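The following record pairs a protein chain with its ligand, 6-phosphogluconic acid.
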Amino acid sequence: MKKIFNSKEELAYYFGDLLLKASQEKPELYIALSGGSTPKAIFEVLAKDYAKSIDWTKIRFFWGDERCVAPDDTESNFGMTREYLFDHVKTRGVNIFRVKGELEPKKALEDYIEQVDDNVPKANGLPQFDIMLLGMGDDGHTASIFPHQIKLWNSSATCELAQHPVSGQNRVTLTGSVINNSQRIFFLVTGSSKAEKVDKIINQKGNYTQYPAALVDTNKTVWLLDNDAARELSNK
Ligand code: 6PG
C-alpha cells in the first residue's frame, strides 16, 4: 500500500498521528528507526507537535541500521535522532538501544545483536518490532543492505556487518528476516531522486528484485511518499 503526501510535513503529521495512536494501544512500543536525512523532517514535527501528546517513555528505540562511527559523528543515525528528536522529548535513556558505532565493527555487531535479541519481544522465533521505519537509497538499498551485498538480506543472523558500496564505510544492519517479522513496516521516502526506484519496486518492473527494498514484505508495508518520490507512479 502507498500514501502520497503534498509535503514532507504532511507526511510527518500522518506518521505522528499514527505513532500517537500506536503508543496509546500498548503499554510499550518497540520501534526500529531509519537513518539518513529523510527522517529529520519527521523528527522535527514530532519534536515540535508531539512532545507532550506522546508518552515517549513507553517507546523503546532501536535502529534498522547504523554507521560504524561514534555517536557524536555527523554520520551517526543515533546522533541525528538525538539532535532532531531525543533532545526535544522526554524519553527514558534506558529505552534507547543504539549501535555502539565507536567500537570495532565486529564488536559493535555482536553487541547490537545481543541488545536486540535480549530486549525485543519474540514472535515466530525472531525479534518482532511493532513498527519498522525504513528509508530507501537512490540505488534501492534499505537499512544498510545494498544491492552489491543483497545476500545479507537472507542471513539467518539478527544483524550483519555491511559496507557502503562507494565509501566502504562499515555499517551494522538488521537482516531481512527481522525486518519482515515486524508487525508494521513503513517506508519513508521523499524526493525526486527516489522516484525511479519507487516506481520499479512498487510496480514490480524489470529486474526489480535486484533491489533490497523490493524484498521487504509488501503485505505489511505502507510506502509514505511525497509527490516528488511518487512522480513516476502515475506514468503507465
Ligand atoms: C542510512 C539509512 C539508509 C537510508 C537511505 C535513505 O543509514 O543511511 O538507514 O537506509 O534510509 O540511504 O537515506 P536518505 O534519507 O538520506 O535519502
